[in-house]
């Protein structure tokens, strides 16, 4: 259940940013999470209330933008959507790929008061 | 603002990596499910090579110092990290352990992660190579069930090959699955119990340390 570590990491970032802005609470936090980032969104939801209790994020609305995994085949240059690391190229079946997106795990923005 | 959630871990990992490079320490992150024989593999490797190579070990477990005691019995310097409820090691824990180890240059550092095929995959510890260990008593489809770990590893050690005559285990199938997830994986097939297949793994370790220099 590494999602708890991840949630605590998000809290740490929010606390730091709120402190810099001289704010006491965060109203909105926007996250970007790729489908290949290794984060189970349900697990993150489950640990979130515990992680944010008595922090600047306690009352924040959490907006998650999910980023679909995409790869470029290194043999035939086809770009394709991928669900799993083992999805082969739909054109030539090669497993050699460069991952273009889907590994994101970022705090994109915070709205503070 | 835009900030990577794992940034703190990555910064500390980079710090560890710089320290290892400065001292010419080859650091390995050993990951696997519980019971695949990580500690047995480590014991065998240390017993066979400790006269010719300098080793240090960091043991990660949720509880107990049992594994550290097994390594200490071989007279190899070892630090135990207990993660408590934590399911993986993070780079700042390794940083603290490394400070206490006081390593000599030109050594190999083996970091045995918590037995868990999921969570440790996300946390760079500053290692040069990540080694995933799987045993023949596990299913051949582990690489596609737990793809993140196989995707982020450089080496895959298949342990307990001495048990294959008694098992319905298809070695080629396991490799095919693993290569689907990560076409760059390098395999070693070993038995930490009988010592079979250990020599190519040792040769690889020696070569890595030389390459570092």
List the helices and strands and how they pair.
The complex is a heterodimer of chains A (113) and B (213).
Chain A: H1 3-21, E1 26-34, H2 41-52, E2 61-67, E3 70-73, E4 79-81, E5 97-101, E6 105-112
Parallel strand pairs in A: 1-2
Antiparallel strand pairs in A: 1-6, 3-4, 3-5
Chain B: E1 3-4, H1 7-22, E2 25-32, H2 38-49, E3 54-61, H3 66-72, E4 78-82, H4 91-101, E5 107-112, E6 129-135, H5 142-145, H6 147-152, E7 155-159, H7 171-181, E8 186-189, H8 198-212
Parallel strand pairs in B: 2-5, 2-6, 3-4, 3-5, 6-7, 7-8
Helix pairs in contact in B: 1-4
Question: Can you describe this structure?
Answer:
The complex is a heterodimer of chains A (113) and B (213). With 113 residues, chain A is of the alpha+beta class. Chain A has a single domain (3-112), classed as hypothetical protein PF0899 fold, CATH 3.30.2320. Helices cover 27% and strands 32% of the residues of chain A. In chain A, the strands form two sheets. Chain A has a three-stranded mixed sheet, covered by helices on one side. A three-stranded antiparallel sheet of chain A has the order 4-3-5, with no helix packed on it. In chain A, helix 1 (3-21) crosses helix 2 (41-52). The radius of gyration of chain A is 17 Å and the shape is elongated. The mean pLDDT of chain A is 94. Chain B is of the alpha/beta class and 213 residues long. Chain B has a single domain (7-208), classed as Rossmann fold (3-Layer(aba) Sandwich), CATH 3.40.50. Chain B has helices at 7-22, 38-49, 66-72, 91-101, 142-145, 147-152, 171-181, 198-212; strands spanning 3-4, 25-32, 54-61, 78-82, 107-112, 129-135, 155-159, 186-189. In chain B, helix 1 packs parallel to helix 4 (91-101). The longest helix of chain B has 16 residues, at 7-22. Chain B is globular and about 45 Å long. The termini of chain B are far apart. The mean pLDDT of chain B is 94. At the A-B interface, helix 1 and strand 6 of A face strand 1, helix 1, helix 6 and helix 7 of B. Strand 6 (105-112) of chain A pairs antiparallel with strand 1 (3-4) of chain B.
